Each structure stands twice: as structure tokens, then as C-alpha cells.
């Protein structure tokens, strides 16, 4: 793992994500890899209030420029701190929409992983608007780890002892499982394949067909295979994660057209927005 992109707004939420990025980077560094933490900050553009005099609009633009300069200084200070801790760093200071700019940085630098914090979601309007972290997780072309902030600014412990991969066992997932298995080996984690049997989920193929395919490539001893009955997948995964002390939930998302996204919001995005444990999102190649 050469580059880990870590967007930051210098808040507690971003600091929790940075702790996970450092944890992951350190393991790869200890294993002999050269891993760089790419720190990215985005200053959002000033939106003028048309009811204000023109001079006030100009003052707002100047304030936005000052905020961008402050962001640059904060990035430099954070990078220097990390370098004192032994990490290689790079900084990217951008101006624009947060999720768009983060995805653009990722497209330019091709990181192996993005690690983002997700603030605690309290209200219906938080759910309606979503979050930058969830949007990046759905649109970036590399894996995205979303670290949630719990109530009172707390977070899940930074560890990778138990990893769950949520599977439908309805299509070939071996290309996604390869990096998942590699991650579990690197951190000596217990890896669980969990299928939630719910009425609203497809169950066309015999599960054994895909389990045999997975075991043929990776070996039976690599996994614990669990099936959970639940009213819906979100409920089933949430209960499973709490009862099995899961440290990381891994999900795959597939590209869908605009109408599909509008009528049936992504299950992966819903878990990113609601999960109390970090969620790592991979992107499958198949389309709906």
C-alpha cells in the first residue's frame, strides 16, 4: 500500500479517521512497504447572499481566501507532526465541493485507500442530505474506509481483530475478496463471510455454488461462514456486528444508473451512514 488519502477538516471526526490511517500505514511500513499519508483539505466556496450589499459579498470572498490560507497552514503543521512520528506525508489543499474535490484528488493520485471520518448523524435532515464521506465512498474509484464518530465524540477502538465481509452469494466476488483476504492476513484478523437472509434480497442461486468457488481459491480455513435471518439486511448486519464484536465491516457496491439510485438507495450507503463501526467499501465491476 503506497498511498493512503486522508481528507481532513482538522476536527475530532477527522482525527479519528487519521488514527485509523496511521494504524493501517504503520502495519504496512513495518512489513517493509513505503507508505505515504496524503493529507487533503477542501475549502468550500463562498456562496453570496444576494440581499447583502456588493461590498459584503467581496468581504465574503476575501474571507474564503483567508480560510484557504489557514487550511494550508494547518495541513503543513499536521504533516510536520506526522513526519516527526515517522510517517511520509504529502499535502493537497483544494477549493470547491468537498466530495467532488476529494474524488478528483483520488483520480489524480490513485491512492490505494481513502480514509474519511463521518460525523454523528442525529436528525432526519442529516440522513436526507447524507454526508461527504458517504458520497465519496459511493463515487471514488478506490476502496474507501469510513470511520464513524459516535455520540459524545467517541469512536470504535482502532483494531482489526474481527472483520466481516457482507456477501449476497449471488455473483462472483472473488476479485473483491482477494484484497480482503490480503488485509486479513496482514493484520492476522479473523474473517467472517456473513449473508443476511431477508425477504427483500435476491436468493436466486444456491449459496454452495459460490462458497465452493471462494473456498477453492482461498481455502476453507480462511473464513467463518455465517447466515443470519432478519427482516432486512441493515437490521441483520447491525445486530450481527454488535453480538460478534466486529471491528470492520466490508461491503461491495456496484455501479447503478441514476433511476436505480433514485428509487432504491444503495444498501452500502445506508450502512455507511448508520454503522457504529468502520465500513470499508469496495467497488465491484458488475452493473445492476
Automatic annotation (TrEMBL):
Xref: CDD domains: USP-like
Signal sequence segment: none
InterPro entries, per database record: Rossmann-like_a/b/a_fold (IPR014729), Universal_stress_UspA (IPR006015), UspA (IPR006016)
Any Pfam family the entry gives: Usp
UniProt domain UspA: residue ranges: 1-148, 206-283
Top-level taxon of origin: Bacteria
PANTHER family in the cross-refs: STRESS RESPONSE PROTEIN NHAX, UNIVERSAL STRESS PROTEIN UP12
Family: Belongs to the universal stress protein A family.
Name assigned to this protein: Universal stress protein
Taxon lineage: Bacteria, Pseudomonadati, Bacteroidota, Cytophagia, Cytophagales
Amino acid at each position: 500500500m503506497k498511498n493512503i488519502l486522508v481528507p481532513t477538516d482538522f476536527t475530532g471526526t477527522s482525527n479519528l479517521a487519521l488514527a485509523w490511517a496511521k494504524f493501517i500505514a504503520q502495519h504496512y511500513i513495518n512489513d517493509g512497504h513505503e507508505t505515504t499519508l496524503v493529507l487533503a483539505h477542501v475549502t468550500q466556496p463562498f456562496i453570496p447572499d444576494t440581499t447583502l450589499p456588493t461590498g459584503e459579498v467581496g468581504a465574503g470572498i476575501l474571507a474564503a481566501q483567508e480560510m484557504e490560507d489557514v487550511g494550508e497552514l494547518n495541513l503543513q503543521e499536521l504533516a510536520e507532526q506526522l513526519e516527526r512520528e515517522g510517517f511520509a506525508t504529502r499535502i493537497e489543499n483544494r477549493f470547491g465541493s468537498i466530495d467532488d474535490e476529494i474524488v478528483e484528488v483520488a483520480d489524480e493520485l490513485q491512492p490505494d485507500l481513502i480514509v474519511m471520518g463521518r460525523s454523528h448523524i442525529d436528525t432526519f435532515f442529516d440522513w436526507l442530505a447524507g454526508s461527504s464521506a458517504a458520497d465519496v465512498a459511493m463515487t471514488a474509484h478506490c476502496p474507501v474506509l469510513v470511520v464513524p464518530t459516535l455520540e459524545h465524540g467517541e469512536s470504535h477502538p482502532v483494531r482489526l481483530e474481527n472483520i466481516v465481509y457482507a456477501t449476497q452469494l449471488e455473483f462472483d466476488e472473488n476479485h473483491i475478496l482477494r484484497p480482503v483476504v490480503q488485509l486479513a492476513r496482514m493484520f492476522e484478523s479473523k474473517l467472517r463471510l456473513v449473508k443476511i437472509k431477508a425477504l427483500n434480497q435476491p436468493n436466486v442461486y444456491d449459496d454452495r455454488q459460490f462458497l465452493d468457488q471462494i473456498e477453492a481459491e482461498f481455502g476453507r480455513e480462511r473464513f467463518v461462514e455465517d447466515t443470519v435471518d432478519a427482516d432486512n439486511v441493515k437490521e441483520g448486519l447491525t445486530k450481527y456486528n454488535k453480538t460478534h464484536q466486529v471491528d470492520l465491516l466490508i461491503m461491495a457496491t456496484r455501479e447503478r444508473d441514476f433511476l436505480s439510485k433514485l428509487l432504491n438507495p444503495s444498501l452500502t450507503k445506508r450502512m455507511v451512514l448508520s454503522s457504529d463501526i468502520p465500513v470499508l467499501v469496495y467497488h465491484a465491476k458488475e452493473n445492476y
